[in-house]
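Exam revision sheet. Question 4 asks you to relate a sequence to its structure. Input first:
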Amino acid sequence: MIETLEHTTFDVQAIRQQFPVLNRLVKGKPLVYFDNAATAQKPKVVIDALTEYYEKYNANIHRGIHSLAEEATAAYEATRDTVQQFINAQHREEIIFTRGVTESINLVAYTYGRTNLKSGDEVIISGMEHHSNIVPWQLVAEMTGAKLRVIPVDDNGELIMEEFYKLLSEKTKIVSIVHASNSLGTINPVKQIIDAAHKAGAVVLVDGAQSTVHLDIDVQELDCDFFAISSHKVYGPTGIGVLYGKKHLLEAMPPFMGGGEMIKDVSFEKTTWNDLPYKFEAGTPNIADTVALKAAIDFINSIGKTAARKHEDALLQYATAQLETVEGVRLIGRAKHKVSVASFVVEGVHPQDLGILLDNQGVAVRTGHHCTQPLMNRFGIPGTTRASFAMYNTKEEIDVMIAALNKAIRLLR
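Answer key, structure tokens:
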């Protein structure tokens, strides 16, 4: 199991002081940042890590023998070790750096998927997937003749597991499932899904974009075949992510991109691929942001996920109760198990109009379909207003949002 460092008390004000952007004003109002499911803000230690790389040891990695190159390589590879421990991967070479969850899913779709899928095979996804876990499988299905199957979602925003079990068959080769919904906050029973899929002979990819920051992730315990992580959702930089894959699967997969670093030997007649993980890391990587990802993970570990999750759950419960007091508000997604996401619609009010008026009062929320258009269609709505909470948010900020929401609704009706 993964060990985290836990404080005896959770001091949200002390945590807030570590995030410089939270001190700013928006439209003359103190910033209330409730768009954490889109991207989390960055603590000073992450910003400092980026600055330190560029100021002190900016160099390309792996190839150079001078001091700066060696220091940069050591810092880059230290992040790989930290990620391995963070998700309890068995081997460090199972940690592949990508640009984010979108690229991680595409990597699996275009390498494992194109190699192993054939006409008549089936890929199962769910009705609450982000577009990045729909479109790559559609494209690969078109290339291979495979078919896409979708687990339906009930009125509470939970997967209908009975229908999933009906979809599973000997035709099922891949199951690609979101761990926690970015639109609804629903935490899916991925362990059950993985176990059932394996019994059917399928491999499983888990989209951990929303779950990694909130939940303890142990890929060995889950027994998932692939797991995708986004840095900027875990208080790290944008433009960097992680694909975990079981070693034997990654070794059998062809490269995703060709170029430098991913090769052992090149001639005009033949090229041989590098060992893991470098086979999937072509070209000069995003070194600075990878280095800073380690600082973000170290920061999370210093707070402790359990303490942060308890605080975030309390915020979600409080926000849900307060939203239910607002006339015309309908909450979308009432799953029993959720991460800290509250999505809602207001009768007679377009989400975009609401978002603009909330921003005028310093409150940052996300509006629209959240890159989950099929899910919005399932609920018969064009989109929602989404408030998503992080460890640095407070109940007082929720009070500000509710007051701003009431004011906005009065203006729009």
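Marking note for examiners. The longest helix spans residues 67-87.
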